[in-house]
Amino acid sequence: MIDITGWAPEPQEATEVIDAAPSAALAGVLDVEPPRDELPPLWQWLHFLERPAQRELGPDGHPRDGRFLPPMPERRRMFAGGRFRIREPLRVGDTVTRRAELASTAVKHGRSGEMLFVTVRHTFLRGGTEIAVEEQDLVYRSGGTASRPGEVPLTAPEVKAPWTLEVTADPVLLFRFSALTYNPHRIHYDEAYATGVEGHGGLVVHGPLLAILCLELPRRAGRTVRELSFRARRPVYARQPFVAAGSPDGELAIEAPGGVTAMTAAFA
């Protein structure tokens, strides 16, 4: 039974000058030109990174302890989705403060047992003025080795939509994105761990990468995004061809092989 009685982490602030180099690096991963001055929505994930010492990491690669990591045994972490509201974009050269706080927790029951849903809110301030607010939804569960799913389909989905972007994430792309976001979770680069311990069908494509690919559709169409939401529904694995699909009306999705909708998103 999940018990987080007494877990009430205090808010935390970090201040950083927004550098152009991380965005240029991500643009290389996505095979696009680097943004000029403004960070595209969600590219703030390249900043305010935590860099724990090696001795502080747990068996899954994540830190064993952290301000917003729940005190659970054999903790497994999954990215579930989030929301982002933009008043003013983050710009290269800005000095920005990010205030992180625990927004909510909820214990729910799923097919794999009890799960803890945690929402962490990030408020971005420039000169003391709020310019953007992000909420990240994360799911934690306790447990040992999970059973591996059946055969992973590799047939490219057929998708018809006004906007599409076809992607196949190989291990090199996943490695580069992990490096850019300083994400040491082993499900993204250690296939034996991902399949044998956490029960995945292969290396897992990062949920944040899927969300960024969704937002590439309106960005490449020249649309300004002021508000967005996204929800991860199913994992996508390395070498699986998938399609980011959307339309100008604000609906976005990641369509994976086998008729699977891996992520849904909406923007305004």
Describe this structure in words.
The chain is α+β, with helices and mostly antiparallel strands. The protein has one domain: Thiol Ester Dehydrase, Chain A (Roll). The chain has helices at residues 21-30, 171-180, 191-196, 207-220; strands at 12-17, 75-86, 95-110, 113-126, 129-142, 163-168, 227-232, 241-246, 251-256, 260-267. It has a 10-stranded antiparallel β-sheet with strand order 1-3-4-5-2-7-10-9-8-6, with helices on one face. Strand 8 (241-246) and strand 9 (251-256) form a beta hairpin. The longest helix has 14 residues, at 207-220. It starts with 11 loop residues before the first strand and ends with a strand.
Backbone structural class: alpha+beta
The count of strands amounts to 10
CATH architecture: Roll
Report the span from N to C terminus. 40 Å
Uncertain residue segments: none
Strand order of the largest sheet: 1-3-4-5-2-7-10-9-8-6
